[in-house]
Amino acid sequence: MKWLSFIIGLFLANSAVAADMASALLKVEDRWAEIRYEMKGSRDKIAAGRELVREAAAIEAANPGKAEPLVWHALALLIEAEVRSDISALGLAKDARRLLEQAEDIAPTALDGMIQTSLGMMYYEMPGWPIGFGDKRKAAQYLTRALEIDATGKDNNYFYGDYLVMTGKGSEAVPYLERALQVPVRPGHERADTGRKADIQESLDKARLASSRKAR
Predict the structure, then answer these.
(1) Last residue of a domain, one of 107, 133, 160
(2) CA-CA distance, 160 to 166, in Å (whole number)?
(3) Is the domain of 128 the same as that of 199?
(4) pTM of the entire predicted model
(5) Please, are residues 39 and 81 in contact by the beta-carbon 8 Å criterion?
(6) 156 found inside a domain
(7) Could you tell me which residues come within 8 angstroms of residue 189 by beta carbon, excluding any fewer than 6 positions away?
């Protein structure tokens, strides 16, 4: 029965690696949320974002072939790009898109649609050609795919609702944003989830205002 002991040992080793990866990524998420929602001063945020990219890249290197580290490496790049808001941000966004596409090739449903929501968000927020690679049609495709993966997810509903607001469909956005707002804060993800709720509320307020104006 040595083969059985070997298989059990291999399973426990893989489980330990998965647990270590999840713990490391949770720290990246928490730091991401701190930079995104709490940190002030662009210089400090750029430095923190650059360090977060290094941390996420190290986790990716330690876990080859895994989709989740690729996603968080991409999100770290995007937080740095958001702070920079200059021509260098486009290069960071392109790198993030490449990582997300790699993650989708590995595990399309990883993180319950986070890959697709992140790609969709970039496509509707990014300027179009010739400045950037923004594309509203691609955004809609990715965002609806995320909802197919998980129709109740907070981010999946939020990003699709926010996309509808930004494309002049505020009344259609309301139910998605209301659904996103009702998702409870997850234990261990308080900083990220609380910050996201503020994003959702801001978009929902815009959607309701647009809807009320349309009804007049």
Answers:
(1) 107
(2) 10
(3) yes
(4) 0.88
(5) no
(6) yes
(7) 26, 29, 30
In sequence order, which residues have a C-beta less than 8 Å from that of residue 156 and are 6 or more positions away? 112, 113, 116, 117, 143, 146, 147, 149, 150, 180
Closest CA to 37 of 205, 200, 215, 191: 191
Q: Which residues contact 45 (CB under 8 A, 6 or more apart)?
A: 35, 39, 83
Domain extent, residue 97, equals 14-107
Whole-angstrom CA distances from 137 to 60, 134, 144, 145, 152 are 30, 9, 11, 13, 23
CB contact at 8 A, 176 and 149: no
Helix (H, G, I), strand (E, B) or coil at 137: helix
What is the spatial distance between Cα 200 and Cα 179, in angstroms, rounded to a whole number? 10
In this prediction, residue 4 has a pLDDT band, given cuts at 50, 70 and 90, of: very low
Tens of pLDDT, residues 87-103:
788 899 999 999 999 99
Polymer length in residues for the chain = 216
Tokens 């701190």 -> residue = 34
Instruction: Retrieve residue 48's tokens.
Output: 């923190």
11: enclosing H helix or E strand: helix 2-33
CA distance 145 to 140: 8
pLDDT tens digits for range 110-136: 999 999 999 999 999 988 888 889 999
Query: Whole-angstrom Cα distance, residue 48 to residue 54?
Result: 10
